């Protein structure tokens, strides 16, 4: 194929699609942190997500999870993704995610 396009070299690489649900589970996310992750992936802001909650208790739970996610969530996901991509991750919790 590269011979057909002068000046353009294409390189085939395996595609890695994030399995966010498995990575989040391996990182020890609770149900609220999973909701935060889904909102972030969908481009829903914190304020927008809070507005979708049916009651004050849900809003407080989501707000607390959002703060935990902002502090540590992406680091936990990066760590799990790195392990999965390099070695494979056994089912269940991979490392201590004490909050």
Biggest sheet layout: none
Termini separation:
51 Å
**What is the typical, i.e. mean, pLDDT?**
80
Gyration radius over CA: 18 Å
Could you give the count of β-strands?
Answer: 0
Poorly predicted regions:
89-99
Provide a count of the helices. Answer: 4
Could you spell the SSE succession in H and E letters?
HHHH
Q: Tell the overall outline.
A: elongated
Question: Would you mind describing this structure in some detail?
Answer:
- The longest helix has 31 residues.
- The protein is 58% helix and 0% strand.
- The chain has a domain of 57 residues.
- It is mostly helical.
- The radius of gyration is 18 Å and the shape is elongated.
- It contains 4 helices and no strands.
- Helix 1 packs across helix 4, helix 2 crosses helix 4 and helix 3 packs across helix 4.
């Amino acid at each position: 194929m590269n011979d057909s396009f002068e000046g353009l070299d294409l390189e085939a690489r395996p595609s890695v699609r994030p399995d966010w649900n498995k990575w989040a589970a391996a990182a020890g996310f609770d149900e609220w942190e999973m909701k935060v992750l889904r909102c972030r992936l969908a481009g829903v802001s914190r304020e927008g997500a809070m507005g979708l909650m049916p009651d004050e208790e849900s809003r407080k739970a989501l707000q607390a999870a959002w703060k935990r996610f902002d502090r540590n969530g992406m680091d936990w996901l990066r760590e799990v993704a790195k392990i999965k991509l390099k070695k494979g991750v056994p089912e269940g919790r991979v490392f201590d995610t004490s909050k």
